[in-house]
Each structure stands twice: as C-alpha cells, then as structure tokens.
Amino acid sequence: MENRLKSVINKFEIHSEFESYQELNSGHINDTFLIKTKLKPQYVLQKVNRTVFKKPEELIENKVWVSNHLQDKLKYLTQDEIQQKVLCFVKAKDNTFFYEDEDSNIWNVSIFIENSVTYLKAKNTQIAFEAGKIIGNFLELTKDFDISKITTILTDFHSVTVRHQQFKKALQNASESKINKTKGLIAFVENSINEMLTIDKAIEQKKLPLRLTHNDTKISNILFSKEGKALCLIDMDTVMKGVLHFDYSDAIRALCNTVNEDEANVEKIEFNFQFFESYTRGFFQEYKSISHEELKLLPISIKILPFLMGLRFLTDYLSDDVYFKTKYKKHNLDRAINQFTFVEKISKQFHKIEAFIQTLK
Asked: Which of 95, 87, 129, 93 has its CA nearest to residue 111?
C-alpha cells in the first residue's frame, strides 16, 4: 500500500519527500489517507468511489471551483490563514486537479488542516453555535457563486418527491412480512407526505432561489480547533445546486437528536432545543441574506430532512438493504423508526421553533 500511495502522491505538485501515511476513517464512501512529508504542509490524498460517484472528474472540478471562490473571498488573509479555513486542492503535474491510475481510479489531493479535531456529536451549546456559524458563513460567502459552473453529482439528492416515488416502488415489490412489520411507518409516510413536499413545491414554483449548497452538513464534516472554534467545512463531494434549507436543516438532523440515528430505544429520542437555539443563533450571525420566503419555510425544513432520511432508510429496508451498509437484520428499520420518531419530537416543539426563528430576523 505504501508504495502505491507514494506513487500516486508523486503525480501531484508536492514539494517535499513522502515520509509515511495514515488511513483516515472519517468518511463512509471514499478512501482517504493522511500523507506525511518531511516538510509542511501535510496532505490528504483521496480516492473517489466510482461506484457511488459516476462523474469523479466533475466532482473534483466542482470542489476546486468552490475552493477557489472561497479563497478569493478571503484574500485579505495570509495564505497560511486561508489554508486553515478553506479546503485547498493541489494540482497534478499535468495541470489538472486529479490523477487517474492504471486501474481507472481517480485521486485528488488537498492540504491537511493542522491542529484540527472533529466531533460525531455536539458536546455542548458552544459547539452547536460554532457549527451554525461555519455553515452560515459558507452560505454567505457562496451566495454569489455562479451555479452554472457546477455539475450535478447526485441527481434529486434531496427531492422528497423522488424519494417518495422510490418508496412506493419498493412497497410494490416488498415481501408481505416486511409490509406487515412496517404498517405503522407506511401510514406515517402517507399521512405526512403532503406537508413534507412543501420545499419541493416551493422550488417548483420558483419561490426559493437555487444557489450553491454543501448538501452534507453533518457535524463530522466540520473541522474545529482544539479550543472549540469552527475552522472549516470539509467534504465538498456533494456541492451542488440547491436551497439553503438543505444545509441549515441537515445539520440540525444529527446535531439536535439526543441519540445516534440507529438508536432502537425510541424513549431516548428527544429534540435538543438548546442546541437548536445555539446553532440557529450562530447561523444567523453569519448568514445575512435570507429572503422573507426562505425564512418562512425554515422551520418546516427542520422536519423535512429527518423525514427524508427516514423515508430512505425505510425504502432500503423494504428493498432488502441494497444501499446503506447494515450491521444487523433490522438495522434500516431501526433507523427509519428513529428518524420518524425524531420528526414527531420536532412537531411537539414546532410552535416554539417557529417563534424562536422569528426573533432572530
């Protein structure tokens, strides 16, 4: 493995000698390695998963476009400061930003951000506040990004309409025993679907402006300093056209659920209102450009993102677990129940959520 990685990294404009490598397990899709060289900076080498991402060259091009845009916005900082706040990519020796090896694997390299940490769950309200700040800041800095440059990497990624169609198809083909086991969840989907299509309908009616969105704003995609300050939003594989509600609310889905998404004991599931308040304060401290229509639909988006995820888990369960990795037989079912329960917990505090958001604008 070492010789292979050394060979690949040498295809890029690296100005120091390879010393060692360490596999990074933060992502679930791509293979990622920390490459240590004799001189700083160190580097992150990533092999794109071509099974999931069918357009790897365009994916890397998207990331570079966004990185260059952010660097330009922060050009009042030193280069070292920029490299602590933005994922900066390294050119290959052929003047592209990727290398294709003899097995048709696509690789890219970014500069490693030193002295940073990640969290799987928020430890306190300060971390939640910082998460809101970094996501709001990303959206503020990219509000004028030319989205015509961006290639759509995963079509209909956040479309409830399309996910509902996939669910109905899975239901037609599901075994009778699985349908019987999930009758309550199926009823929940059908009783909720009209409300959960709110954002889709607003996009279709052009009430919400399309813009650049990150589309995977879970807290583990934020690098923090050891003092708990958010440094950089990473994992740009899914930067695409979208609406700000995707990024604002996807973070809340994991941040404000008191348990992990596969916790089977629903008694433990609550909506952490304090984390929501802190996160939203941080978000609005940085994001200044929200329209009246966007603001009006912000609360409902907090329900829609966990519903969408629950719908995907339930669809996969009915389809005999063909997409998500599972650790046991009912893993996707437990995940679906978890997410739908979380939606119900949000609904119980929905008036409070709406009232709080209104106080900030």
From this structure: 87
Burial class of residue 237 (count of CB atoms within 10 Å of its CB; 0-12, 13-18, 19+)? buried
Task: Report the CATH superfamily, name and number, of domain 2-114.
Answer: Phosphorylase Kinase; domain 1 (3.30.200.20)
Tell me the per-residue pLDDT of 293-332, one tens digit each, with 9 for 90 and over.
Answer: 999 999 999 999 999 999 999 999 999 998 888 899 999 9
Domain 125-359 sits in CATH at 3.90.1200.10
Query: Which residues of the chain register pLDDT less than 70?
Result: 26-28
Tell me the pairing of strands 99-100 and 43-47.
unpaired
pLDDT of residue 158: 95
* Residue 189 Cα distances to 194, 208, 254, 299, 309, angstroms: 9, 25, 20, 19, 12
Domain ranges of the chain: 2-114, 125-359
- Between CA 290 and CA 305 the distance in angstroms is 19
Alpha-carbon span 35 to 9, nearest angstrom:
8
| Predicted pLDDT at 28 | 59
The model carries a pTM of 0.93
**Contact 356/280 with Cβ under 8 angstroms?**
yes
CA distances from 35 to 117, 239, 273, 307, 315 (A): 17, 25, 40, 39, 39
pLDDT of residue 27: 55
pLDDT at 230: 97
